[in-house]
């Protein structure tokens, strides 16, 4: 233990001397949380819209009011021809063009179907999907209102819609993107720091020859590895705490579950990431190689873990590939505890997956490390 304590003191002193890396480790969570939390927003609303209303009747105005009231469309341009609408969408001035034909009100009055053309710039698929969904919904609601009015006029009785679908979104009822993103960014920050900086730090020591100096001391392999890992566990906890504080103070992130359980299970993920970093360091010969290998892990973690895209929509092969990444399970733990308030009885499968990952990767890393020593 005395040897391990001496190595830990040496690691912390070395970490303090490398001020740039230390500042990155502490500052990275704050910068990433603020940038991602404010910039990334999947709720695509207020799309600039060009309108060519040839009807100019109360019915067409009601329809346009319903579009703007949905908050998905902002009428920014009034066109006087089809060509103007097309030019507005083509030039990028607007994302949506709405064309209402001259017989719109007349068709409604006589019970005929009234067509409305909605042109959407689908080069941005996310914005296009939001616009199409919102336009369809507004059209369905307005159609339903008109049908009910007609039936009430015929029967003279109040008529309720045949379906009464009552939607109750749980855990994030206001669909706040930051509530979904902030736990994910916490996992991303820990992945980047623990894997990349750990692997680079170990390889840097090997490049400088200081690792060989430690190897020739009476220190055992497990003491050496623990001495390298423990300081970064402390750094990981500091990062997690900073990220949580920023999430709570800046984004009003609700933490519904147990903070103690969150910190306990965070240690599983930190150890898993550190084990991966140590494994990479046994393959890499230079810091550049360590960085490139870390990115090889980092990018799939961002794309396949469920941070950016729902895993349910992925092809089966990539869904299974995501199961090999520790971030996949840590994100489920984070969102489960922070947003849903669930406990270990729900999250035990994720904990078991991380435990298996740690056991396998750490065993390979120790074996590879011992071979290098030999």
Automatic annotation (TrEMBL):
Coiled coil: none annotated. It comes from the Bacteria. It holds the Pfam family ABC2_membrane_3. The chain crosses the membrane at residues 20-40, 178-203, 229-249, 261-281, 316-334, 346-366. Keywords: Cell membrane, Membrane, Transmembrane, Transmembrane helix, Transport. It is a multi-pass membrane protein. Residues 135-372 form the ABC transmembrane type-2 domain. Its main location: membrane. It is found in: Cell membrane. This is ABC transporter permease. It comes from Anaeroselena agilis.
